[in-house]
Amino acid sequence: MLELREVVKHYQTGNEVVPAVDGVSLTVEPGEMTALFGPSGSGKTTLLLLAAGMTPPDSGAVLFKGRSVGELSARDGTRFRRSELGFVLQQFHLVPCMPAIDNAALKLVAEGMSRRAARKRAAPWLERVGLAERREHPPEKLSTGERQRVAIARALANNPGLILADEPTGNLDTSRAQEILAMLADISHGEGVAVVVVTHDHEAAGFADRVHTLRDGKLLDGTPRAASTRPVSAISDVG
Ligand SMILES: Nc1ncnc2c1ncn2[C@@H]1O[C@H](COP(=O)(O)OP(=O)(O)O)[C@@H](O)[C@H]1O
Ligand SMILES: [Mg+2]
Fold first, then answer.
1. Lower CB density within 10 Å: C or N end of the chain?
2. With bands split at pLDDT 50, 70 and 90, how would you rate the model's confidence at 222?
3. CA of 119 to the centre of ligand 1 (A)
């Protein structure tokens, strides 16, 4: 679904060149969760921006369903992100005082859907993240874990093929973080969505189907988890 081939992105700051992403190749399949580890500054966010077509690579290719997203025009890039991508960020970016259901429906309304239709479309996703009973609660009346769930419902509301989550558990305590990671994995496996989750949290490895570690813009490994710990559906194509 998503394929990065020898992707390079260097930033020039003054006289210094920062090799933010330095020759990364990886593939992300539907129904799989990929966890991306790496210390601060290792290029994780840049990698997600490249995957989203929000920054063009200096060289290499970023392909989504076989199409290059590296050189999309501004307009096609926006269209691609609207139809195919969902973002989950560390800061939840929810609108204050707005009911959870409307926050979940926000992207759809921004794309021109009526509030009523958007709420209807977002409702099953809010239910999917376990917040059916909280649908009229604004963010201020929700816990941090619940806020992140609303943000996940919002990311899913347009039925994206790919969810890019940049440190979605960075503001959560350990057990809330685990819940969110388990939920992302479950959604990925259950709905056939590809999920890429950037995290510092090594517990995420326990939920992910693939684990990659970035250091100084380079991938250290691309090892899938052991077959025995992968979901049953994936075991058959390992051996
Ligand atoms: N817009 C930018 N201009 C210049 N340097 C940048 C820019 N964005 C990121 N960098 C640098 O690129 C490297 C990778 O950054 P980033 O992708 O944000 O890493 P991470 O998300 O792993 O912390 C860092 O050294 C960072 O300072
Ligand atoms: Mg980052």
1. C
2. low
3. 36
Residue range(s) defining the domain that contains residue 65: 2-235
> Does ligand 1 have an atom closer than 6 angstroms to the CB of 44?
yes
Q: Whole-angstrom Cα distance, residue 238 to residue 149?
A: 32
The two tokens of residue 149 are 């769930």
Q: Which ligand is nearest to the CA of 46?
A: 1
Query: How far apart are the CA of 46 and the centre of ligand 1, in A?
Result: 6
CB of 82 closer than 8 Å to CB of 111: yes
Ligand nearest to the backbone CA of 51 = 1
CATH number of the domain that residue 122 is part of: 3.40.50.300
For the Cβ of 200 lying below 6 angstroms from any atom of ligand 1, the answer is no
Per-residue pLDDT of 124-134, as tens digits, reads 999 999 999 99
Q: Quick one: which atom of ligand 1 is closest to the CA of 42?
A: 22
pLDDT (tens digit per residue) in 90-113: 898 999 999 999 999 999 999 899
* pTM score: 0.89
Amino acid at 98: M
Tell me the per-residue pLDDT of 20-38, one tens digit each, with 9 for 90 and over. 999 999 999 999 999 999 9
| Contact 42 CB / ligand 1 (< 6 Å) | yes
- How many structural domains comprise the chain? 1
Tokens representing residue 74 in the block = 């501004």
- Distances, alpha carbon 120 to alpha carbons 84, 114, 137, 238, in Å: 20, 10, 16, 40
